[in-house]
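Work Package 3 committed the consortium to producing structural models of liganded targets before the mid-term review. Because experimental data for this complex are still outstanding, the team generated a predictive model from sequence and the ligand definition alone, so that downstream docking and mutagenesis planning could proceed in parallel. The input record is reproduced below exactly as it was submitted to the modelling pipeline, together with the SMILES string for magnesium ion.
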Amino acid sequence: MKITEIEIHAIHLPLHDPFIVSYASYDTIPSIIVKLTTDMGHVGYGEAVADEHVTGESWESTYAILKNTLAPKLIGMDPGQMEKIHARMDAEIYGVPAAKAALDIACYDLIGKALDVPVYDLLGGKYHDEFPITHVLSIGTPAHMADEAEQRVQEGYRSLKMKVGTDVSEDVKRIQAVRERVGESIAIRIDVNQGWVNSSTTLQALRKLEHSSLDWLEQPVKADDIDAMVEIKSKTSVPVMIDEGLCGFRDMREIIAKRAADKVNIKLMKCGGIYPAMKLAHMAEMAGIECQIGSMVESSVGSAAGFHVAFSKRIITSVELTGPLKFSEDIGNLKYDIPFIRLTDKAGLGVDVDEAILNKLTVYSEKVLG
Ligand SMILES: [Mg+2]
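The resulting structure, written out as tokens with the ligand in place, is given here.
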């Protein structure tokens, strides 16, 4: 089986509400969808959502790299030879994990469909039957975040992830307001997205939050400062998670060597797709570090890819892939049974892509042929 054609679509996914984190605010999410076709007529879809603040890639650069650099090199290759495909991509260009993830995901979707098995069966089989879905609260006033938290708990959510990271004292008020409103039985995770910058600010905040029963604290300090994470971890009993500080294998080696985290947040867009994500999960497992599979805000295609990895690994104990719930229009039909996600046994990613919607959301597109 050989890849004969790669279609690349640069799309805008419309959001219900603006998505606000410590470093940016978004009304639509720019994404890239790729569609692979083989000489046997099989089709697979993949997605790249670039985050310039995390991997240094942009929507525009990802499109250009896929079109000019990566896609032409994959024409003629067997989509089932993942080790070879990644070696070819890595030889062609360093980094650019989101661009590589798009092609990696499309290959898995295609092979799953060709063999008529879900992608998790290509990854060792389904280990988890379901994951609870965490609702993510965008940064707002303490009262507004508490109102939204209360509403979501009434809808059935049992865990909340709060985005904070603008101002430490205001963040502490936000967290205390939400904890007070939802009570002790709801899990609260905090994602600072590097906004508390260093270890001293973080330790001050943690002291004030001693009685807030936090599940874990995610990426309080600058991504590159693994040593600050080591210090925080040694001085608090709140579990700490590294997100932006973990992209690929080099980062994971440092985190393991320094025992810098209790948990890590693996994202396909940071590491290059399903295949490298599985390697990272294996590294973490050997070091006794728990994993979460997270995502950028991705459509049904990218999100489903993350779920297939998560469902197949025991060391992956939580997921944060809520992109499709945020979109007013999506190219695919990944289904959530809120507040849970359960995967079907449909082949490939298990997502039907609506070509009419894909074309409608496409800003520009290109076809790369052999
Ligand atoms: Mg995060």
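Reviewers should note the following from the model. The chain has a mean pLDDT of 96. These observations will guide the Year 2 experiments.
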